[in-house]
Every structure is written in C-alpha cells, then in structure tokens.
Amino acid sequence: MRWTWALGLGAMGGIGGTGIVDLPTRPVQPSAPVAVSWMPETLTQGSAAVVVIRPDSDSSGDAIDSVTGMLAGQPLHFERGRGGTFWALLGIAIDSRDSLPLTMTAIRTKGSSEHAFRRVPVRAVDFPTERLSVDPRFTRRPDSALAARIARERAAAGRVYRESRGTPRLWRGAFQRPVPDSVTSSFGMGREFNGQLRSRHMGVDLDADAGAPVGATNRGVVALTGDFYYAGRVVYLDHGRGLVTVYMHLSTIEVTRGDTVATGHVLGRVGATGRVTGPHLHWTARYGSVSLDALSLLALPVGELE
C-alpha cells in the first residue's frame, strides 16, 4: 500500500486532516483529482526515493501541465512520465527526524493551480560505529597550508553539487554498482580513526582488488577530477537535476572533466590513495545538499516512471 492523497481545487483554506491546502489562482471548473504517492513505501534516513503524481481521468481536458515542489527546503525537479504522471527524485537526509515537509504545486493547462502540503514519514536507522587504523597524519590537526588545501577541495566539490541543479537530467534507466564486489563499510556508520571519533561515513565502501575497473553508475558528465587529501584520486560525476555520484581512492583516473559517459563507462581503477586502510572503492551520492546511501539508487523504480 502506498501513501496517497488528493490534490483538489476549492475555496482558500487551511491545512485539514488530509494535509491539503487549496489555493486556486482563479475560479475554474473543478478538475479531476490527482493522487500523490512515494516509492519505496517506507522512506529511511539517508536514502533516495521518488514522489509521483498520478492524475485521474479528466474529461474536461484540463490536464496537469507542470509540477513544482520542495522537500524540507530542497527543490524537487519534476518530469513528465508515463500516462500523464509527473515524478521527481527525493533525497532523505541522514539526520531527518520522524517526518519531512513536502509541498507541491500542480499547474493545469487552463491556468489553475493546486497546492498540497504533507508530512512524509521517515523511519530512523540505527547506524553502528566502526574503528579504523590509518596513517597518523590523517588524524592530526592540519597546518595552515594543509587546511587551505582541504578547504579548496571542499569548495570545488561544493560547486559541483550546486551547479548540478542547472544540469539537465542525463541519467536514464536503472543504476548499477560501479564494481560488483561486496560492501565492507555501509553508509551512515560512525568512524573512529586511531581511537578518536572523527566523522560519519557518508558513502559506501565496496571491496575490490587494486586495479579493478570502476564503472559509472549511470549516464552523466565528469564535473571534477583530482587528487584530494582525504579522498585521494577522485571523480565527480554529475547526473543532472541535482544528483551527483563520487568515486574515491582511485589508483588512476581514465576520464577528463567535461566528458559525457554512459552507464558502465570506466572512470578509473580501484586504488588506495588518500585516507584509507587498503584498496577499495568509496562510492557516494549527493542530491543537492543531501548525502545519500548510493545503494538506494539501485532500487529506484525508474523503469515504470520514464
């Protein structure tokens, strides 16, 4: 069973028990209601999901022309899907509590607009802590030169995330793992380096042999490459409409900034550069300012939406 509610036209009013706010721009004949749902049915901290607007039959010809929306302050990029549906990617932040505010506006071809508000329930995840031993230089307070380098690298990554909002959607079809190997460290874990709690793991570590090829999880454009202090040799892949995936600790990089790559295209090779305990791929996803468990991309129901 999917959570749904109707978007309907009516007199201006407050939020009722259904979570509907009706704010038509001008008087029009009522149109058929539309249903809103999200998939998967259970949304969890740090996951990707989709929201779908499914219009009912409308004999008046006043169909939905476009949809805009926001989830917890993050803009949603709706696209037209099969059978008159509209859908958008959602990013559920790891620190989300209980529920998130979802607002949407549907614009119809005859000029009317329908607004809805809903609190989307979010299930909490119990993230464990792991203890790792790394080169002590990665746990010492950086000097001014190193701090400046780290700041530059973070700023470069931040530009990629911001600019992705303006990139058209490039990804198509299902996402795939960049390497086929097993997960050795999951998303969201607390990480204790050399006996001190330093960070939360905002990616997925995949076990792989040094030199193994790393493939693009989906179509995108190479937005940034470099040799970063913590991430080592890294590739940032912009999939458009706010979605970016990142591939860290590579031994070699085999793409250039500006390249458009297809799903599975080799971006580089598994390595042990940056802050690591051994060869592996650190794979992460970001939607706007929200870090996501990249594995949740694999479960998106893309086929039935596009």
Helix and strand arrangement:
Layout: E1 5-7, E2 20-21, E3 34-39, E4 43-44, E5 48-55, E6 64-71, E7 74-76, E8 79-80, E9 86-91, E10 99-108, E11 113-123, E12 129-132, H1 144-163, E13 183-185, E14 190-193, E15 196-200, E16 204-206, E17 213-215, E18 220-228, E19 232-240, E20 243-253, E21 260-261, E22 266-270, E23 281-287, E24 290-292
Parallel strand pairs: 4-11, 12-14
Antiparallel strand pairs: 1-3, 2-11, 3-5, 5-9, 6-7, 6-10, 8-9, 10-11, 13-16, 14-15, 16-23, 17-22, 18-19, 18-21, 19-20, 20-22, 20-23, 23-24
**Percentage beta strand:** 35-45%
Structure summary, number of beta strands: 24
What ranges have pLDDT less than 50 throughout 5 or more consecutive residues? 1-32
Mean pLDDT: 83
Main β sheet profile? 10 strands, antiparallel
Distance between the termini: 22 Å
Count, helices: 1
* Topology as a string of helices (H) and strands (E): EEEEEEEEEEEEHEEEEEEEEEEEE
Class inferred from helices and paired strands: mainly beta
Please tell me how large the radius of gyration is: 22 Å
Residue share in helix: under 10%
